[in-house]
Here is the input.
Amino acid sequence: MSQPLDRARGRLAIFTDRGWKVEDQDDIQSSPAEAGGGHVDSAPEHPLRGLLVAQFFGAFNDNALKVFVAFLAMRSVAAAVGTPAYEAASQTQTTLAFMALTLPLMIVSLPAAVIADRISKRTIILGMKVFEVVLMGAVTYALYVTPDDPFMPFFILAFMGAQSALFSPAKFGILPEVLPHERLSEGNGLLEMWTMLAIIAGTAAAGLLGDVSGGRPWLVGAILTGLAFVGLFAAFTVPRVPAARAAGGMVATVTGALGAIRADRVLRLATIGSVYLWAIASLLGQDILIYGKSTLGLSDTLAGLPLAVLGIGIAIGSVFAGKLSAGKVEYGLMPLGAIGMAIATLLLGLIEPGLLGTLGLMTLLGMSSGLVLVPIHAIMQWRAPAERRGSVIAVANIFVFAGILAGSLAAGALGQLGLSPSSILLAASVAVGGGTLWALRLMPDAFLRLVLVLMTHTVYRLKVVDRRRIPLEGGALLVPNHVSFIDGMLLLASIDRPIRFVV
Here is the structure.
């Protein structure tokens, strides 16, 4: 496992449900399927390329349209007298835009749970990209007919939320079907990185596209329609995968998914953590948009800059989390990320550091968020039963989208109570800190794994060979040589499954 342990290796005894197995290390050969990979007969060299492109343009369109519609609505209240009145009205209009996209996400996740495993996830991805092209065409028409009325774009945003609800379980659920287990964290890191880059580009482009359109907002819709076509063409290169199971209606699917979540403590806690994280993210995303305009005095074109930098930070943190995970699902990164989020939001609300300071703290907040997002998504994909993976993700999404909606409503309610954007950031930092302490109380081993991650990337250099010899499920008995006092710690740092030691 480490350099000292390499001299002692050679043969390893593993006890499985078939009895004892003693093998030389160099004799072990395992296929991607044995390593927890998918069911693809012959996966392409870059199985995620098409999915990443399709996800990029889908997330770009979602966020560009959402922010553009929010700006349209905010202009309708620009005549309000006084900064507090403008801030409260802007929070309300932004809340409406966020709700128009989020509420359908929660509602449509129920039928999404049924089809997520009954139909090939590739088929779902292709179907939703076609639907996205149709919706972008519809918003182009709406902006051409009634350019000053945000009602129809709000209505189409709701359908975009429904499209995202159906797309989400397929895009996340397909990862374990086309990637081996040791690349699962890396795949999630790449997916999060491209998603965040799309959010950056979409959020930043909303105001810019509005300015370039020159009073013709339908041009914005036309551009988004063209990008939707690019995402559709890329989706055709996603590897073919079969449906996970052939039976199960709405009730059976939902009860089965809930039963799987309840039966696995780690999966259950990951779901709760995901809900809490996205609720905070929704509150912060909405408040930072107002923070940029009212506190920093940014124009529509630049108002999305702090969110864009936040997205850059999340992209960096997501890739970093994939690297630090080192071929396993490393939930020890989550406490580090949560602490960083609490510090960044506290400093933003406390000192209001100006534009450059805000961008620096946005980067820290984003990187910290990436360290939480990647392990949570990887845990849910890993721990969910293969035949119910899509439905588990879809049912979890119902709670996640409810959390997003709650965060958006909380931002609007706090604004109506007279809290400034900085005060809302302070409240968010308290919520993040409290949630972190609660999570560590429930899972103290996460803090131990954090210490091990820091140790094995600073004081020690850890090299793990033949991790595939450890089964992903079922019991196994490790019988290593004891050559130093930190052997147990190194074993914990090498494997993402819990180990019970007998010395």
Q: What stands out?
A: The beta strands are 11-16, 19-24. Confidence is low (pLDDT under 50) at residues 1-43, 79-83.
